[in-house]
Write a structure and sequence with these properties.
This is DUF1489 family protein. Pfam families: DUF1489. It comes from Sphingorhabdus contaminans. The protein is α+β, with helices and mostly antiparallel strands. The protein has one domain. It is 14% helix and 34% strand. The protein contains two helices and seven strands, in the order βαββββββα. The protein is globular and about 45 Å long. It starts with a strand and ends with a helix.
């Protein structure tokens, strides 16, 4: 089972904005995110995905293509320039990235399938999730 990672969709105003950013920053069929350190468990991430956090909720994933030194003492996380929507689950904000085990990942939403939680205001959704109502 592959290992995944989570990252804040910093600066994205919505999942649609994140999707547009991924397309805009795509170069040679990939998006490169800079990180200071190479994950220690990088070998386990083959076939994994980067799960995006927006408004304290996992909203989608981008498959990881690999990792690469950028020549400036840092590393690139190479991901596909697409956002695959997932069933939204709450996730606390954090700095940088964190590992996400395969058993903890939310299921993908099918083509045309929408999560009704997408239309709820994030604050209300967070409160309902805390109470276990969604």
């Amino acid at each position: 089972m592959p290992l995944h990672m989570t990252k804040i969709a910093f600066g994205a105003t919505s999942p649609a904005d994140l999707k547009a950013r991924l397309a805009r920053y795509s170069q040679e069929g990939e998006v490169r995110l800079t990180t200071r350190y190479l994950p220690k468990r990088v070998a386990e991430m083959t076939g994994g995905s980067l799960y995006w956090i927006h408004a304290h909720t996992l909203i989608g994933r981008s498959p990881i293509l690999g990792f690469m030194e950028n020549g400036q003492g840092r590393y690139w996380i190479r991901i596909e320039p697409r956002l695959i929507p997932v069933r939204g689950i709450p996730k606390r904000a954090h700095q940088g990235w964190r590992y996400l085990e395969d058993k903890d990942v939310p299921p993908d939403l099918g083509d045309g399938e929408a999560d009704a939680r997408d239309v709820m205001p994030p604050k209300m959704l967070g409160e309902l999730m805390k109470m276990g109502l969604v």
